[in-house]
Structures are given as structure tokens and as C-alpha cells.
Amino acid sequence: MIAEALNQEFRIKVEPNDHDDLWLQPGRRKISGTAARIVRQVAYHHLTLLVNVDVATLKRSLSSPFDETILTNATRSIRAPAVGYLAQEIPDITVEEVQNVIMESFKKQYLHTEVITLSNVMNDQQFPGVLEYEEKLRKWEWIYGRTPQFILPLYNDRIQVEHGVITGSLENQKLIGSRLPEDVMQAYVGFAVKPIFGINTTKQLAEIKAYLCEVPKDYDPKLIALNATIIAALFTALIYPFYAYLIGDNVVSEKKHTEAY
């Protein structure tokens, strides 16, 4: 329905694929993805539709430094051949235009329709329980506790995690039973995803050192050990090879410069 509506209104070529994604042709550029889930007697469904985006920023947001590192049986996303958006073909298109086109197409297919406009979905009086639900989604139990089982190979360890709790460690048995806290994961991910070129690595390492030194008195020692393990792994896996690469290039460059003279 959406593909037909867009094609008819804007004279473009949008096609659904076998996964119910939408491709903008030519080039099989993915402009829409969909997901569905049935739980008890409730069905959930959502889709996306890219109207105008910064593709470079989008790709960075969807990429992860752990794609090739984490070992898991969880279903992995199927990478699209390319990413696109409607404004590539219709530069002056707006979100409102797309909304109206889809709504009108929906009305034509279904006799009994009603358009509901939500101005403030976080209004607990209008939507009782929404604030409580938001709080639930911010808690550790939802963010980490529902994480599928995975194994994280580190520089000198191999940590197994299930539902956010460490269930195995080759080098440090004291870590078993510890929960992956939000602050540790943020330190790990935040440091790992920063682009190597252009970052102030001295500042990063100083901040990490301060983070490890200024630990509250009641902080679990096992989590301090986990911090240290992760930081050591990051330094070895990311920073040291990068500097070795630069040093190697500089040595080769200096050697060539010397030979030229």
C-alpha cells in the first residue's frame, strides 16, 4: 500500500522486497524497514520511512564496534545493499506530505478510519500509566536484563553474559554473578565507538583513569576489576595498534626520505 501510494503521488519507483522492506529504485536503496511481534493476544508492528536524512550519520548510528567481536546466537540484522531516502528523488519533499499521502491511501482501502493526532504522548492524564512505562524502559532490567546471551572475547579474558549478568569468565571467577552496570557499558561503548582519527587520546585515557580512581567506597570490587579488564582490552585492541600503525608509517616515511637523499 505504501509503495503504491508513493509511486502514484510522486512518480518514483518504490518496491517491497521479501523482508517487507521498501527499496527506492534504481539502486535498491532501503528507505523503510518493518518489524512485528505477537505476544499473547497483542500484536505489535512498526515501520520506518526515511524522508530526508544524513546518511553518513545514520550509518554511524547503526554500526557497532562489536559486530565482528561479540559471539551470539541472536538473530542478526540483514544489511541492506544501500541506504536511501525520498529526498534523493524529490528534493523538496516534506514529512507532512508523506503522512498525508499514506493516510489518504489508507482511507481508500478501509471504510472505517479515524485519524488520531497525538500532541503530547507523555501526558499521564491523557494516557494513564505512560510515565510508569517510560520509567520501566529506562531501568537496567529492560536495557540489559533482556539482552540475549553472548560471549565477549577480551584481550586477556573471555566473558559470557546472559540477561546482563556475567555467567562465565576464563580469568576472573570473581566476576561471575556480577551485573553489567550501565556506567561500565557506557565507558566501554563510548570509548570504543569514537573514531580513532581526531580524538584526543590523552584526554580519553585521563578521563578513564579518573573514572577508575574516583570509585565510591561502597562500589563492588568485582566491578572495579571488570572496569580494569575492559579498559586494558580497549587500550590493547584499539589504541596501541593505532599508534603502532602510525609509528610504522612514520618509520617507513623517514626511511624513504633518508634513502632519497
Secondary structure: elements and pairs:
Blueprint: H1 2-10, E1 13-16, E2 22-25, E3 29-32, E4 34-39, E5 42-47, H2 55-62, E6 71-72, E7 82-83, H3 95-109, H4 130-138, H5 140-143, E8 150-153, E9 158-162, E10 165-169, H6 182-193, H7 201-213, H8 221-260
Parallel strand pairs: 3-7
Antiparallel strand pairs: 1-2, 2-3, 4-5, 6-8, 8-9, 9-10
Helix pairs in contact: 1-3, 6-8
Which tags fit this structure?
single chain, BirA Bifunctional Protein, domain 2, 4-stranded mixed beta sheet, 4-stranded antiparallel beta sheet, 10 strands
Structural account:
This protein is an alpha+beta fold. Among the domains are: 1-112, Bira Bifunctional Protein, Domain 2 (BirA Bifunctional Protein, domain 2, 2-Layer Sandwich); 140-180, no CATH class. The protein contains eight helices and ten strands. It has helices spanning 2-10, 55-62, 95-109, 130-138, 140-143, 182-193, 201-213, 221-260, and strands spanning 13-16, 22-25, 29-32, 34-39, 42-47, 71-72, 82-83, 150-153, 158-162, 165-169. It has a four-stranded mixed sheet with strand order 1-2-3-7. A hairpin with a 4-residue loop joins strand 8 and strand 9. Helix 1 crosses helix 3 (95-109) and helix 6 (182-193) packs parallel to helix 8 (221-260). The longest helix is centred in the C-terminal third of the chain and has 40 residues, at 221-260. The model is unreliable at 183-202, 211-217 and 235-261 (pLDDT under 50). Pfam families: LplA-B_cat (PF21948). Keywords: Membrane, Transmembrane, Transmembrane helix. Pathway: Protein modification; protein lipoylation via exogenous pathway; protein N(6)-(lipoyl)lysine from lipoate: step 2/2. It comes from Onchocerca flexuosa. This is BPL/LPL catalytic domain-containing protein.
